[in-house]
Specification:
Strand order of the largest sheet: 1-2
Helix content: over 70%
Distance between the termini: 25 Å
Radius of gyration: 21 Å
Oligomer: single chain
Keywords: Membrane, Transmembrane, Transmembrane helix
Largest sheet: 2 strands, antiparallel
Number of strands: 2
Number of helices: 8
Structural class: mainly alpha
Strand content: under 5%
Transmembrane segments: 12-33, 39-62, 90-114, 126-150, 162-180
């Protein structure tokens, strides 16, 4: 029996860590073009990025039994769920939150000033111009991931195995679903086998 797994809260935690780690890339780029933050910002956000990547790699290696030891179980979520739950609804949440990212980008696009030459850039405003394409990109990727997860999950063809890969584009909710599925894979197989045996007995 598989001794490792991950709870819903543990999967959400990994999703949050992954999202924060990804955001450091944008903050590094932001620091590079903002003279007020500059080099120290690049160094600081680079450190956070490296720590996040190291944590995610360590989590993956631990769940694949490549690294072992009691100390790791206190560092990485590994609590096996008592009952496996189908957490596909996280992809529906991802679909909604992704639209909010796009709505945020469009809202600021409407609010920010324009003239006949294009966007008006002055102190403080250009920051939003920097983040608008990022918000829009995150939203579009999240929607693509959520739609892909929905289509593959409900397809009559055997595409459900691709659902968790699409879900990875869905930021925190989508990543949480994917991690929950990956880490509880053996538990899922055991659950499906038990359901099959029960139906045959009936």
């Amino acid at each position: 029996m598989n001794k490792k797994g991950i709870s819903i809260l543990g999967a959400v935690w990994i999703g949050i860590v992954a999202f924060i780690t990804l955001s450091q890339i944008f903050m590094i780029a932001f620091s590079a073009i903002d003279d007020n933050i500059g080099l120290w910002g690049i160094i600081e956000f680079s450190i956070f990025f490296v720590i996040g990547v190291a944590y995610l790699i360590g989590f993956t290696l631990y769940h694949k039994d490549i690294i072992k030891g009691k100390i790791w179980k206190y560092l990485f979520p590994n609590k096996k769920p008592v009952v496996y739950k189908n957490m596909f609804k996280l992809n529906l949440i991802s679909f909604v939150t992704s639209q909010l990212w796009i709505a945020l980008a469009i809202t600021w696009l409407i609010i920010l000033p324009f003239d006949k030459n294009g966007p008006i850039l002055f102190e403080g405003v250009w920051i939003f111009w920097f983040f608008i394409p990022i918000w829009f990109t995150l939203g579009v990727l999240g929607i693509i991931g959520a739609i892909g997860a929905i289509v593959t999950n409900y397809s009559q063809r055997d595409w459900s195995k691709y659902t968790k890969y699409f879900a990875l584009l869905g930021l925190v909710p989508g990543i949480a679903y994917a991690v929950y599925e990956f880490c509880n894979r053996k538990n899922i197989e055991e659950n499906e086998l038990n359901l099959l045996n029960t139906s045959e007995n009936n």
